[in-house]
Amino acid sequence: MPRMVILDGNSLVYRAFYALPTLTTADGRPTNVLHGFLTMLFRLEQEQQPDYWVVAFDKTKATVRIEQYAGYKAQRKETPEGLRPQFDYLKDVLTELEVPMLELAGYEADDLIAVVAKQAEAQGMEVQVYTGDRDALQLISPKTNIYLTKKGISEVECYDEHALWERYQLRPYQIIDLKGLMGDSSDNIPGVPGIGEKTALKLLLEFETVEGVLANVDKVSGKKVQSNLKEFADQAILSKKLATMLTEVPLVFSLDDLVYRRSQANKVLPVLLKYDLRNVTRLWQERHKDNGEPIGESPDVLLEDWPERKLTDADWLAQIDQWRERKDPLTLACRYEGTGLQGGHWLEWGIATLGESFTFAREVVSAEVLKAWSELMGDDHVPKTVADSKTVALLLANEGTCLKGVVLDMSLASYLIQSSRPKFAPLDLVKEYVANQAVFENVATEAAALAQVAPKFEEEIHSLGLAHLLHEIEEPLSLVLAQVERHGIAVDAEKLSSFGEGISITLKQLENGIYALAEETFNINSPKQLGIILFEKLGLPTAKKTKTGYSTDAETLEELRLAHPVVAKILDYRQLNKLMSTYVNGLLAQVKDGRIHTTFQQTVATTGRLSSTEPNLQNIPMRLEQGRQLRKVFHPTEPGWVLLSADYSQIELRILAHYSQDPLLCESFSLGQDVHTRTAAEVFGISLDAVTSEMRRSAKAVNFGLVYGLTEFGLSRDLGIPRKESKFYIEQYFKRYSGVKQYLENVVAKAKQEGQVHTLLNRLRRIPELLSSNRVQRQFGERIAMNTPVQGTAADIMKLAMIKVAEGLKPYRAAMLLQVHDELLLQVAPEDLQSVARVLIEAMENAFPLSVPMTVECKVGPNWYDMQSFKPME
DNA sequence: TAACTCACG
DNA sequence: ACGTACGTGAGTTAC
C-alpha cells in the first residue's frame, strides 16, 4: 500500500523552536528550527520510506475561522523574534530537498492536512500525519495514523484508533467534541468554562458528543458543570465547529505532485551549507549515500602514460611466450577493416599490461609470430580485458582463431552499470572515469587507457552486485552470439525474389486502383499527401491527429474502411508495400552466399533483451498470413537438415506468478491450465467451461497489459471497448488476483524509493523518469517499474538458456540460428533431432527454475513457415 | 534528422 | 485537463 506522509509545518516548526537551544549561523541567523525539523524529516524519510509526502503550512492573514469567531486565536502572541525568518529558511531548504509544500491563503495547515489525508485515503494509501497538535487526532482512521511529537521534536508517538481509545476512551470523531467542551487555549477556542480534559472525557464517555451532552444536561453530575453547560451551550457548539478540520477547501493539487523524490546532492549540499548546517549535512549524506546514486559523477582516474615498447620479430615471440607463461593480464584494443561479420580483418592490436603498451601490427610480424599470437588469444589462462568481445571474437574467427580467457568486457560492464546509456565505444568508456583529456592517438594508447579504467568498471560491477550477471552470463553469451552471427541463417534468395514479384504485381494493381478512386496520382507512402486526399479531397471524417497533421495509421484507416472504397485498398497497399520494402528488398540486400548474418546487439535494450540489426531478424512477419508466408524462405543450410524451434510458453506471466506468488496465477501454471481461459473464468466469475472465446480474448489482453503496466486506456484501446468496461475488467482482475496487485504496487513503491528496479538475476535499470516533474513521465516511470523486472527476467533466463544450449549442442550436428526473445531457432541433422530437442528443452526449462514450472514447446520443419509441433521421445 | 508507420516479442 | 499501455529496428517522406 503506498504511503503518504503529511507534516504539519507550522506545528513542527514551533515545536522545534521551543525544544531546541538557540543555534545560529556564523553571521548570526537563527537556525535551531532547521536543525530540529530536518533531523526529524530525515529520520522519518529513512524509517517510513514515504511514497508521497508533503509539508503543509498555515497562511493565515484572515482565516476562514476569524469570519466565524472574532476571538479565534486573538490572544495568540506575535511570532517570536528568532522564529519568523526561519520559516523562509526552511522553505528554502525544503525546495532544494524536493519536498512538496502546500499552503493556501486563509487556511491553516490543519485544513490542508485533512484534505490531503482524505484524498490519499480515497486512493487507497496509508496515511501518516506528523504534528504536535492533538486536533489532528480527529483524522485517525483504519488507514490514517497520527504521530504526535513527544518531548522535543524528534521523538514521536503513534496514535491509531486503538491507541486513542486506550489513552482517552475516545473515537476519532469525538476529538472535536472534546475541544468543544474543554476548549483550546492555544487557539483561543473557548469551550465551556469549568470543563477541563477530565470532565470532558467523562461526559463524552457517557454521552458521546457535545450534542449528546447538551441534550442530557440534566443528567450531568455537578451543579456548576451543569449550569455552565446550559449557559455556554452555544459556545460549546461553536467551539466544536472551530475545532473541526475543514475538508471543503478550494485546494488545487494532484497527489502526483506530492510524490516522493530522492533529493539530489548538487542541490541539497549548497543550501545546507548556506545555513551552516554541518550536522544536518552529515546526516543527509549518511542517509543518501550508497542508495542508487548515479555513478560516474566524479571521474577520478588520471591517465598515465604507459610507454610503448617496440618489438622485433624475435622479441615478439619471447614476449608472447612470457605473457602466456606468466599469465599476464592483457588489455586489448583493435583496429580493423571491414566488419567482424563480413569477413573483416584486424590490422593492428594495442596491448596494455603492467604499465607498458605495445602495438601488434599484422604488417610487421612474421607468420610464426602470428601463429603464436593466435595461440595466445585462444589461451583460456591468459586473462584478457576488451571493450567489445563479440567483435573481437568475430575478427579472430575470421583468421581461424578462437578468443578465450576474456575476464572483462568493458562495454558489457558499462551496459550493466547503466543500461540506458547511448554509447559503449571505447573512448566513451574511458571518459566515464577519466579526469584528464582522453584521446586515442594510436591503438596502444587506447589499450593503455582502457587498462587503467578497467579496475573502475570491475569495482562498480562488484559494488552493484552485477559480477555474476556480467561474468557468468553476458560475457559467455557474447561468444555464443558471435558463433550464431557468424553461422548465419540460410535464405532462399530466388524464392524471396519470386515472392517479391508476386507482391509487385498486386501492388501495382492496388496503386492504380487507388489513383482511380482518388481521381489523381499521389505518393501513397507520404502520410501527408495521403491525409490530404482522404480528409480534404474525399472529406472522410478525421478521428486522430498527429503533431504534424492527419493521422493515417492502420488503426485510423480501419475505422474508415467502410467510409470509402479507397481505404481498404490503401490498407492492403500499406501491408504489401511493407513486405516489399522492408522484407523482400531489405532481406535480399543482406543475403551473402545464400545466408543472412544478423548482428545481435547486446548493449542496446534497457531491459536486458537482445536486439537484432542489419537486418532485424527478430521481426519477420508472423501475425498475418500474407507476411507469414515469407518465413518459407528461411531454411537449414545443409540439405536434409531441419529447422527446430523452441518457444517458452507464457514466460512473462510465469515470471509475474513467481514474483507475486499470487495463489491463483501460480495454481493456474502448476495445473498446466490455459492461463487466459483461467483468467477469464476468474474475471467473469464463471466456470472454465463457460468461458467463451470472446471472454478469453479479453482476458488475454488483460494478461498482456499486466506485464506492460495495465492502464484503462491501453486496455480499452486494445480491445476496442469503452473505458468503463476496461476499468471493470481491471477491477475484477485485481479483486481475484490480489497478489498480483500487491506485487505491482510494491514494485512501484520500491522503485520510487530506490530510483531503480532489478530483475531476478539482479540486472539493474535506473528509472530517472520516476523523478520527473512531469506527471506523464512519472507514470511512464511507474509502468517501466512494473514491466522491466518481468521482461528483463525473461531476457536473463533466455540468455542463461542460450549458454547452456550452446554447450549442450557441441556433441551434435546442430547449430543455433536465431533468438527471438522467447524463441530459439536451430538447425539440426535429422539423426540428432531427438537428442538435440531433449537438450534444448532441458536447458531452457531448467535454465533458472522458478516457483512455477517453465514449459517449452518445440516445432520442426523444412523451413520457418512449415513448422509442426514436435515432442521428443523420453 | 525527425516524424510517421509498421513488423516482431 | 491531459496524454497513456512494455521493449525493439527499418523504410519512407519531408524538413
Number of helices: 34
Spatial strand arrangement across the major sheet: 3-2-1-4-5-6
What ranges have pLDDT less than 50 throughout 5 or more consecutive residues? 290-296
For this structure, the CATH topology of the domain at 308-487 is Nucleotidyltransferase, domain 5
What is the correct CATH architecture of the domain at 308-487?
2-Layer Sandwich
Termini Cα gap? 47 Å
Q: Beta-strand percentage?
A: 5-15%
Q: How many DSSP E strands? A: 23
CATH class descriptor name of the domain at 308-487:
Alpha Beta
Helix-and-strand structural type: alpha/beta
Report the radius of gyration as a whole number of Å: 35 Å
Percent of residues in helical segments?
40-55%
Mean pLDDT: 90
Biggest sheet character: 6 strands, mixed
User: What is the CATH homologous superfamily assignment of the domain at 308-487?
Assistant: Ribonuclease H-like superfamily/Ribonuclease H
The gross shape turns out to be globular
Describe the structure.
Strand 20 (814-819) and strand 21 (823-828) form a beta hairpin. The radius of gyration is 35 Å and the shape is globular. It is of the alpha/beta class and 874 residues long. Among the domains are: 3-171 and 253-258, Rossmann fold (3-Layer(aba) Sandwich); 308-487, Ribonuclease H-like superfamily/Ribonuclease H (Nucleotidyltransferase, domain 5, 2-Layer Sandwich); 488-604, Up-down Bundle (Taq DNA Polymerase, Chain T, domain 4); 653-762, 5' to 3' exonuclease, C-terminal subdomain (DNA polymerase, domain 1). The chain contains 34 helices and 23 strands. A six-stranded mixed sheet has the order 3-2-1-4-5-6. The chain has a five-stranded mixed sheet with strand order 9-8-7-10-11. The chain binds a DNA duplex (9 and 15 nucleotides) through helix 22, helix 24, strand 15, helix 29 and helix 30.
